[in-house]
Amino acid sequence: LASTNKCVLVLEYCEGGSLHHMLDNPQHVYGLQESEFLRVLTHVSAGIQYLRQENVIHRDIKPGNIMRYVTEEGLSIYKLTDFGAARNLDDSESFESLCGTEEYLHPAIYEKAVLRLPTAQSFDAKVDLWSLGVTFYHTATGQLPFQAYGGRSNRYKMFDIISQKESGVISGVQKTENGPIEWKSDLPETSPLTSGLKSIIIPLLAGLMEPNEGKMLTYDAMFRIIQKIDKKVTIKVFHYNRCEELIIYTEPNTTFAGLKDEIASLTDIPSAEQILLVGGQLLERVVDPLADVSSYPDSLKSGKVYLFQREMSEKHKLPKPKIPLFPAFPPYANIDEDARLAHKCSAQGELIKRYVERISNNQLLLLDGLMCLRIYVESRLAETKICQDFMVQLMDECGYHYDALFQLARLLRESIARQVSQGRDPFSVDIARPPAVSDHPDIQKLDLVLQDTAIREVHAKARDRIKDIQQYREALKKKIEEIKSYAAQYSDACQKENCCKKIKYHLGQISVIQSRFRRDRSVRLQMTAHDQNIHGFERTRLGDQCTRMKNILVNHCFHHLDRVFESRLHFCESLTKCLMRVNKIEKNINNVLNCQKLLTDKLLKQKTMCTTELLNWESGYASYDTAKNVASDYQYLQLSVPASQSAPMDVNVGGAASDGLYTHPRNTQGLSSQVTEGFQSMSGDARNLQEKLQALQDMLATNSMIIRGLDETSLHSSGSLPRSAEERNNDEVG
After folding, report:
1. C-alpha gyration radius of the chain
2. Residue 164 and residue 207: Cα distance in Å, rounded?
3. 281 pairs with which residues across the strands?
4. Where is composition skewed (Basic and acidic residues) in this entry (predicted)?
5. Alpha helices per DSSP H over 434-558
6. Which site in 182, 507, 675, 679 is 20 to 30 Å from 529, CA atoms measured?
7. What would the pLDDT profile of 267-317 be if each residue is shown by its tens digit?
8. How far is the C-alpha of 143 from the C-alpha of 103, rounded, in Å?
9. In terms of residue numbers, what domain contains 479?
10. CATH code at 38?
């Protein structure tokens, strides 16, 4: 002002009132909602950061000096005001003047300013940090962190509380005269903040409200923590086993694996045990597992992601909501006291309203989450049906090739035996004295092939296992249908009976009575006898409204939630067991597949051996190497052999062309063309069979090692479905 040569600080008008006024509103008596609390945290921190950049200390930070400005969009902006006690102060400077509000004062200032104890201690800029911690705690809970019984009339006990508290403790309350102090290291249950934000805020509050200057947070550390909180990405997750809606605060560059680690730190469910579902699908199939969570769609971050545990080790009891007692009205009316009690009743009603809304929402999430899990299990089971059908087709083809192998081997043996018996063996050293047919080495090799029953036995066993899988699938499908039928008997009772609307009605009645009591207090000297009678009637009605609200919460809403939670947890456990059984089916299919691959490899080796014998007899040479050396100028035959063989078998055999086979210069009589053509076709069939086996393995999407035996993954092992229909009927759901 030019007339006085003084500076005047002009602020815009904040029609939202002060933060203290907000916390006095019954809706916020137990703390601001999470989103609004974060606004206070970031906005006030930004204001303090600007003051520190200008080397200014406020010295009277409290909710009454934080104003709320409302934008056109309805959003809140919180502004730090009242700089009457502010002064310039560098980090290296100190001050001795005393100012501030005692509930928010640093212990050192409280000792000198409130208790007026002689001390030569000076104070630095860090005293504002303590005030910030108390203010943030008050905003999160609606109550002061440190309270002595009797309030300001018991200041020495208050000083003992704030000066003697241990590190990590964020509240200390004395509830009775000369009683013990209740120390707490966490926020009260009535706080609206979720467990995810609490886990971040509690260390911040403990660092700010630290009487030991060496352990207290610095301004820079506080700014970094709050800025980091402001940049975090939030994802809503419903923890099914605890019936709790979580908000996960994570870094923007966190991947899916990191998100699971964050969830594990909040829930004690290891990452490997977590099942995260959205819309009946695994979350990792909906999003890119390697992408940052910041790239996830907004509908997913604020949507319904359900968390289940693969194996439920223990069942959790649903914790009852902590409901502070409604105030007891004295038998005789007291106009001033009644207005205060009505305000408390209204605050209790707002808390009950929050609980009922949460319970109603949790009932819906329990119902929707179970359906989500069931859809996922059913989809996994349907995938095994596709694999099973393909495996049956593959088994039929394999059986055909096995039969063809033995038939062709039998024909080859008969042809060789006939030539040997007629003395037409081109490899015999003594043609005049040919060996007996049974002693001929080639006949003995073919006899080993024909006598090998392992292929047939394992193939038959694999077929039996496929039948077991099919029966097991049908039993599992029936069990899921039973779970679905039982689960349909439960519904969201609170929504059907309009509990939220009932609570709002009773809360509205309490608000009307509270307004009347405030008016009566302002005109109590002018009240007539009729007005006093009406006041007494309203006192009775107020108590009745409070009782009805509490009964709705305790005797109806929580009772139904507990009932739904217990039943849904039972069905959830049954479905997770079904999921484990689906995994067992997949493991058995993969086991049959691997056994089939082993049999196919053996078939190819047997085919190669038989083909070798055929070529040897057709060419008249004992080995491929000899044939290649002496007949390089002839046309050749290429054999296709699987890549799994230890040595390459693709061979070029020389000789004159005759129906695709080499003919020995001695014009040895060739074997039956049926045998020759059969072995030629088997090479291509075997390759096709291998390709189908590989395609099926890709479909199963497993990289597990070959299971040693079919018996190791028996479908009827411990914890599986019962064998017989009678056992299945006796088996309860779950």
Report:
1. 42
2. 15
3. 278
4. 724-734
5. 441-451, 454-487, 493-496, 499-522, 529-551
6. 507
7. 889 999 999 999 899 999 999 999 999 999 888 887 789 999 988 767 778
8. 11
9. 376-730
10. 1.10.510.10
